[in-house]
Structures are given as structure tokens and as C-alpha cells.
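Is this the right way to post C-alpha cells for a design question? Let me know if I should format differently. Anyway, here goes:
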């Protein structure tokens, strides 16, 4: 009976019966946590890990933080975590959702104003261009899908950054750097804080030659079902055509609101 039980025991049970003096309990616990994430179909919080793996809260927290810093897991919403590859898949799905919801409004803005219409999306530590409709004018402002957006200078970047929690906003700024693109770029922390406060108050952001001399841009934020600013839509043009600003602001805000409503109903 004893012999049979030992032969059918799992590797983990065998380690418990015959502990190896070289076995690292800390590494073993981290591997157990990784296995838990591999088997889970949903994001996990600290309490979920503590309960499932039967670890003290402090130990589970250190393991989660170590795995996050090492890039094995990624923080998503409400202090929950998923495997890094799962987070990437979730982000791609969210991008596709936002792009599909935004396309009709982007086309409408393009037809009305004949200027460049762009959509940007918030990733873990950066803001990227997700979709663009180019202006038909020979002289125009351009964007490129996949291009990085300055979180402190462009209207798209300021619009998304303004509505983030302080920690994530600082992370965006550190990742990109407060680069001065033109004499109009805001790089002083106090001035930038006031600018973002204004963006939150008015519900839209301006880029008045802050990323490119001669270029102007207006953006409004797009919110997901959890009311997080995950994207922004913009209309950009050369300074020589930057006129009828009230109409431009109203149009871009209306477009962002329509996309937000579409996402909330998805």
C-alpha cells in the first residue's frame, strides 16, 4: 500500500514527502502563483492569490510585485493582474473595439472639415495612434498608426493623460520624457499640471504648435464602460486653417461622446 501510494504521487506531493535540500520555497511559491494565473480565465486580485495558494498576504504581495516588475504578469483594472500575454490580447481586443466604434465619427469629421482625424489609445505605459484618416489637402498635419503620442504635448496625449490617476500619469511622463518639441511645448511641472487641470475642466485639449510649429490640434477623451479615459479623438490642421474654433471644439467633443456612448452600449 505504501509503495503504491508513492509511485502514484504527483511531483509536488513527492517534494513534500522527500524535500530536496536545494529546493527554494520562495521560487516554488512563485511558480505556484504563475500556475494559478495560467489556469485562471479572469484577472486575479491579491486576495484571490492569497486564498488560492494559501500564502500570507505579505508573501503573496511580494511575489505579485516581483512577477509584475519582471514582466510575467501585468496589472489591469481594479488592482487585478493577468499574465502578460493575456494582457496584450485584452489590450488588442479593446483597441479593436474602440476603433470600430470610432470609425463612423472619424469619417463624419473628415467629410465635414477635410482635415486629419486621428484616434489614440492608452496602453500600459504609452499612448499610440490607433487609426488615422488623412486630410485631402496638399498641406496638412499627419499621423501614423502605431506612432507614439507625447503625453504632455499633443492634444491627444494631454487629453488622455489629464484623466488618469496620478501614478499612471507620472508613468506616462517618465516613459516618454517631457521633451520640448517647440518653444510652445509645456515642460515645467507646475504649468503642465495647470494645463491638465484645464483639460479636465473643459473636457477637451488643445495643441497650439506644441509638437510641431505651424500645426494645431483639438482632442476630446473617450471613456470605456468603467468610465476610464482609454482613448481620444482629434482633428488637426495647419495653423493657417485653424479657424471657427467653437465649431471645431463642439464637433470633436460630440464625436468623442458618441463613441463613448457606443462603447457603453457594446
Amino acid at each position: 500500500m505504501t509503495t503504491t501510494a508513492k509511485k502514484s504521487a504527483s511531483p509536488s506531493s513527492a517534494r513534500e514527502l522527500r524535500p530536496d535540500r536545494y529546493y527554494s520555497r520562495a521560487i516554488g511559491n512563485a511558480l505556484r502563483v504563475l500556475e494559478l494565473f495560467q489556469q485562471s480565465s479572469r484577472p486575479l486580485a491579491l486576495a484571490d492569490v492569497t486564498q488560492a495558494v494559501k500564502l500570507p498576504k505579505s508573501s503573496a504581495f511580494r511575489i505579485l510585485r516581483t512577477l509584475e516588475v519582471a514582466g510575467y504578469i501585468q496589472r489591469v483594472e481594479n488592482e487585478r493582474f493577468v499574465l502578460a500575454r493575456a494582457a496584450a490580447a485584452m489590450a488588442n481586443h479593446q483597441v479593436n473595439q474602440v476603433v470600430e466604434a470610432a470609425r463612423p465619427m472619424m469619417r463624419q469629421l473628415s467629410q465635414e472639415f477635410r482635415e486629419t482625424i486621428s484616434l489614440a489609445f492608452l496602453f500600459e505605459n504609452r499612448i499610440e495612434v490607433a487609426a488615422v484618416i488623412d486630410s485631402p489637402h496638399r498641406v496638412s498635419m499627419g499621423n501614423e498608426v502605431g506612432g507614439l503620442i507625447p503625453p504632455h504635448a499633443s492634444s491627444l496625449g494631454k487629453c488622455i493623460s489629464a484623466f488618469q490617476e496620478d501614478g499612471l500619469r507620472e508613468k506616462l511622463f517618465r516613459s516618454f520624457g517631457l521633451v520640448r518639441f517647440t518653444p510652445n511645448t509645456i515642460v515645467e511641472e507646475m504649468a503642465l499640471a495647470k494645463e491638465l487641470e484645464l483639460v479636465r475642466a473643459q473636457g477637451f485639449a488643445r495643441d497650439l504648435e506644441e509638437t510641431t510649429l505651424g500645426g494645431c490640434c483639438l482632442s476630446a477623451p473617450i471613456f470605456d464602460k468603467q468610465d476610464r479615459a482609454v482613448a481620444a479623438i482629434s482633428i488637426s490642421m495647419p495653423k493657417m486653417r485653424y479657424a471657427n474654433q467653437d465649431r471645431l471644439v463642439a464637433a470633436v467633443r460630440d464625436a468623442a461622446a458618441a463613441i463613448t456612448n457606443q462603447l457603453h452600449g457594446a
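Format looks fine. Someone answered above. Worth noting: The beta strands are 44-45, 73-75, 80-83, 116-122, 127-133, 205-208, 215-223, 229-238. The domain at 88-265 is CATH 3.30.450.40 (Beta-Lactamase).
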